[in-house]
Specification:
4 copies of one chain form a homotetramer.
Chain A lengths: L22 H12 L26 E18 L4 E9 L5 H14 L3 E12 L2 E3 L3 H13 L1 H9 L6 E10 L2 E9 L6 H18 L5 E3 L12 H6 L2 E10 L1 H8 L3 H18 L8 H12 L6 H4 L3 E6 L5 E10 L11 H9 L8 H25 L2 H8 L4
Parallel strand pairs in A: 1-3
Antiparallel strand pairs in A: 1-2, 3-6, 3-8, 4-6, 4-7, 5-6, 8-10, 9-10
Chain lengths: 396, 396, 396, 396
């Protein structure tokens, strides 16, 4: 078939690869696309940076999506890395979203802010190994443990910032599935862990002759996918956001009382359990996605990062303790899309650009999420939800 | 506390609401934010459209995120609505992604394209009802069925494009959880269904005195959350993409054979089952997110839309049958963010802007996803995965 | 290979099949087994009924397991079919179990009994159908709907007590998975539904030429397996048991207060959600299994019947509302093991033997389960749990 | 209220506790029950052992359930502890079951037997700890690690056979959920681990003042409940059974070919994934339950032990590799119900009674299960399933 490779028209690529990330190359692609479009690509072509900036972030670059950013805040955070007030850039096209988060931020500011804690931090690559029989898989599990030092050395030789923490092992049939867990500094770390794990596996393959075959991934990482193993064992940052909300404050800001809010939550928890959700809260994906797009995170990780565990208590004095645990929040303050033009600006607005800032960013995301949970939860109880969409939203 | 509302500085809002979606208001907010930032917001302010366009899409607008778009294709689709070659705009900052999807598109073009089918289409709002005891919940379930005509009339009075198809009912404890299933035309339909369902519930509350309390959502929709109920019962479009890949074509384009690819897939299926994934494939969220951002879909729906079921067969002649089923693909060709500047241009590029185009868009998304699955799967088997990231990617 | 069938010794089978279910045949098998055992089979041979009774229940019969039965009660039930006090036979070898359930029965008797409700009732057989492509599967789904009358007629022709209620349909790849839902009278119904569904499928295959292949089961029933689809869509009886427990009664019987019990429950709910349980309660399988063995139910169905949803409320006056929903309780008062010697006696003790009694039995099981939940939950909070096992139990 | 204890009639208890486990006490209870029954309890009273034997296994003893036992075999096992042929006692009232397992045993005998491997072995008790905030939970997780030696010493002081292997820790909200993992010798170990963990927790509570509250169980063990955490992290024995089945042998014994069987399996795997099963195989609960009842295991553990992962391969030469992994098989050869009259006899028949035999038993169970999987799978493909129930079964 390949002899017939010309039968379809490829997206234009410059003759010299050095010309690929230029305005000319991008314009040539837009021209090519426009000829095949019902409209033009004027706005797509209206980017404000040098295309050289996106080398390493995208291939066959032709322009940009302009996603509207609303500014919410101030968000008051009582974190270990994030402390004080933040103004939060949220990129979204969903009417009401920014307003709703903003309202939650106002409420929790009145309540003294959101306490945030990063409780774990580990990124994976998850190779699987196949053996002649189950006994081979079991014995290899022990072998891995015995050779941990050498494996770690092989992995860490490929990276300056990654550390191999440990290797989770899960046996089934004649396979051993593993999770190589790393700390990855300020990068999200998917690529760093891929490279390190491949090096480790090369060492393993050279030193263990019982392996029949090997795959660098077999659905155990689980990159870009929700999974129970991530909820249990963490992927990226495991962050908790907590707040204590007095009944009178809730009433004044949200027009609902804590007892009603609490009862609605219990009904939701049972609903979610029966529905088989991976998130028993309300809509953490909304806040996470808006922050991810604004700050250059990989929005495809919303698949994993949208998992959440809400836990609430109605205290005897009427206070409402509310918390959310995000077990797989995948964020970076360095690398990936964080250095792009608008993305870097948004990270700087949060004081989260560059080295040593990734946990601060994780805390801000978690705090933002908690504000949105309370706001939507209150709206449902107050039955304002649909009317607020009518007032502010677009989709009628 | 509210008397002390001034103790923090609000994001600036114009005196007259008519001035809210203007360049001046946006500039004023950027100025406010810049004073609190480590950097500026020049690029965020470099949008190319009239801010009036985003009224209804965002609040407290201050500018845009510029997300790089790569152009992949041609994607050859053999769908019911989408037919022929498409050039696909993918908005992402993840190096390798566009190249990988592009490679998959080349492969499946050689194989005759991707067959796509929308097998179901329904959007939900999911109110719960609480009764004195379980018997009340059970009896209400029958009552709903008996009063279906009146309930449908109440719901449909609020919308010109939504149709109430049926109401799923799930009893637990003294609650009845429901899913009001609608067809929603070319809109994603979350807001339309919210409004219609609220109207239906108002009719219900007025006509049934046994209801103790009611919530418009209780984790059964499950909006912005992965869930088994969505995988089983569909949310948005349920789309299947299928392809048949001859062994020689796979070898020539991907440098792997179909048998190896198939064996790797089986190991992944078991891994995913043990890990508790909601997607036994590779990384559909990558393609979906890139298309969602480019075309103005709600990227927070990646939480639901990233669910997938891959099914593969190695045929006796060596052909590889490969399919992916996306049970909760939430897309719109009208409403939401589809009319924004760059987003509309990207929809037009696909011939998917406006009325009557939503299923075509769903088919293109599914076909794109299948290309990415084969490409990453092949790279893992060929052990090229890490090396391709090294060559093209950024995150070292 | 079959020519070499003699190379191993088969379990003895009488020359005439009419002699199979006799004391002699059973004795011959025990003798055969004893020769290969470290001990004898005297107790196994000490059954008190005519072996002819077990024809249809077991093959290669050689004797019985004698499982100890403890008598718990009185259980006070406020059901629709079960009303009043019951003494409950529980077959188990787990020390403490009967005592613990008995204690719970005492508590809920003091509270006015357990309210029980059967909220749904449906048994499945779940054939899958394979087509040339996804479009075939989708079209077949419509075809099924259009031909429902004929399909129902074919199914119901095979049974006097089964009724085909509806057919759930779930599309994925080029398959359509179905659940044929039946009401099955007083039988559990797995065999009845198998026979009826096979007949229906034969009609379908004769009248639809698009089906490439067909399997009577493909993991969608899901017989002898826990599944979310059963939790959502019911298998067997869906039963709710509810009770209202005043604080002072709980304190006097259980030595714990309702608030402590409630708080422990909330922590358990979050734990279970994170752990990925199919039952957020305590140990319903204990009561269900003990009743299943005593009354001739199929204890292998504990796989499905152990799913449960606990929902609790702490009322403002300190009352504790407690409920459990068992979505897949598979019970029979007729057929299967219900007519065996001891099993029938235990059903008669509950007034649940024979026609028209199955829902009564379901209610008694659910009520028993609720008693055990409260009892173990209280013990954990009171930290009496381990000490009670020490006092009563065996396994030190 | 207890002063009013007389308003209902308690189950008779002898005046002296020493008289509790006697024939007289049992007879008195049967008499009490018979007066309230539609029938008698003659068969229930026909037990063949001294009631003193069941002290520690049941309370308020009144007799036995007589569950029919069929003898299947020979089962050919190629295990590490179990080697050679076994005749398997299966206690069940489900017609066809023994015949079906027997048929599978014949097939796999022809194929050279079932290879079995115990790949892990750990029993849990799973306390949760509550703190003032998430930071307390996180810090406690480190504290546990630092104090592991003392905690282990406290736990192991209570038991001669249990060893504390490690403590899994899972943080959410202001809680730390743990799993104390033990090896438990030949006992199932639920009680042993309860006692040891309580002692460990008492040491912890005495030495750590940050704990706000503590529960010995919070749904993380997960005793008597299916869960993903057990599938991932093992509960009891994690056992794999494997076999290699030549096409001609399958055809001669089962009248199906390996390719058809394999294709049916793939369709079932997708079905199970969509249905949300915890077992992608066919019906392992049937064999497990029958063996559990016969050999004195706790049949309520079928809730956990029915989880399974089937993995199959169709080899290029037409051989069918078939395996099942049971991640939470809870068995004992000592303690619990293993010493009861018929139960001990059945264990002795397998050479599995007493010390040092538990892994052998686990291997026999897993091998039996694999035989049943192949047998039912073949019947479905051969469409013999319903007809064999008709011929042998009872439930028409």
């Amino acid at each position: 078939m390949t002899e017939d490779g010309d039968r379809f028209e490829r997206v234009p690529v410059p003759r010299h690869s050095g010309d690929d990330y230029t305005s000319e190359a991008a314009a040539r692609r837009r021209e090519f696309a426009s000829e095949r479009s019902e409209g033009g690509l004027e706005h797509v072509g209206s980017y404000s940076f040098d295309p050289a900036l996106v080398a390493g972030n995208v291939e066959q670059f032709m322009g940009v999506a302009q996603v509207p950013i609303g500014l919410a805040g101030p968000l008051l955070v009582d974190g270990e890395e994030a402390n004080g007030e933040f103004y939060v850039p949220m990129a979204t096209a969903e009417g009401t979203l920014v307003a709703s988060y903003n309202r939650g931020m106002r409420l929790l500011h009145e309540c003294g802010g959101v306490r945030t804690t990063v409780v774990d931090d580990r990124m994976q690559r998850a190779p699987s190994f196949v053996f002649e029989s189950a006994r081979g898989a079991r014995d290899f599990s022990s072998w891995l443990e015995e050779n941990m030092d050498a494996i770690r050395a092989a992995a860490e030789a490929t990276t300056s910032s990654g550390k191999l923490l440990d290797i989770d092992r899960f046996a089934a049939s004649r396979m051993l599935y593993t999770r190589f867990n790393y700390s990855t500094g300020d990068a999200a770390g998917q690529n760093l862990t891929g490279k390190a794990t491949l090096a480790a596996c090369e060492w393993i393959l050279a030193n263990n002759s019982t392996i029949e075959s090997f795959f660098l991934e077999s659905n155990f990482a689980t990159d870009k996918k929700a999974s129970q193993v991530n909820t249990l064992r963490t992927r990226g940052k495991r962050v908790v956001a907590e707040a204590l909300i007095p009944d009178d404050v809730l009433r004044s800001v949200m027009r609902v009382d804590t007892e009603s809010l609490y009862r609605a939550r219990q009904v939701s928890h049972l609903g979610g359990f029966m529905a088989g959700v991976n998130n028993n809260g309300s809509h953490s994906a909304n806040g996470i996605t808006a922050l991810f797009i604004a700050t250059g995170q990989d929005a495809a990780n919303v698949a994993e990062s949208s998992a959440a565990m809400v836990y609430a208590e109605l205290r005897p004095n009427g206070d409402y303790y509310y918390s959310i645990t995000i077990p797989a929040l995948i964020v970076a303050s360095h690398g990936g899309g964080t250095g792009l033009a608008t993305q870097r600006e948004c990270l700087e607005l949060l004081g989260c650009y560059g080295r040593g800032k990734v946990r601060k960013l994780a805390e801000i995301v978690a705090a933002t999420v908690l504000c949105g949970e309370i706001s939507l939860g209150s709206a449902i109880v107050a039955q304002e939800w649909v009317s607020s969409h009518d007032r502010l939203g677009r989709n009628r």
